[in-house]
Amino acid sequence: xxTRSKILTLREAAAxxxxxxxxxxxxxxxxxxxxxxLSAVRLHTPDAKLLAVVLPSPRAPLDQRARAEMVAAxxxxxxxxxxxxxxxxxxxxxxxxAEVVRLEAAHARLAAQLIEHVHRRQNR
Length: 124
Hints:
Elements: H1 10-14, E1 20-25, H2 32-44, E2 49-54, H3 64-72, E3 79-82, H4 88-95, E4 99-102, H5 104-122
Parallel strand pairs: 1-2, 1-4, 2-3
C-alpha cells in the first residue's frame, strides 16, 4: 500500500465520515516519542479515525510534505494533512473532531533534547 494515499487535501478531510481525532505537531524528526504519543491517542479512542496535522517547522531538516509522508507510514495514523498554524482552528471548526491533541510543545521539547544530546556527544 502506498501510504501517501493517506495524505488528504482539505476537501478530502472535510468529507471524512465518522468520528475524527486530530493530532497536531511538527513531527520534525520522527522519534519514538512521536510514535508513543500517537499510539496513546489511538488507544484512547480506538473507534475514531486519527488525522495527524503536520505543521511547518523552521528547524526541521525535512520539508513539510516529506514529514507528512513519514507520519502517513505509521500504522496508527489513518490520515494526514499538512497545514499552517493559522489554519488549524478553522480545520477544527470544519471537522468538529471528538478530540484535539496538540503536540507542538512536546515536539519542541523532544527536538531540544535531541540537539542537547548530540552536542554532549560531540563534546566528549
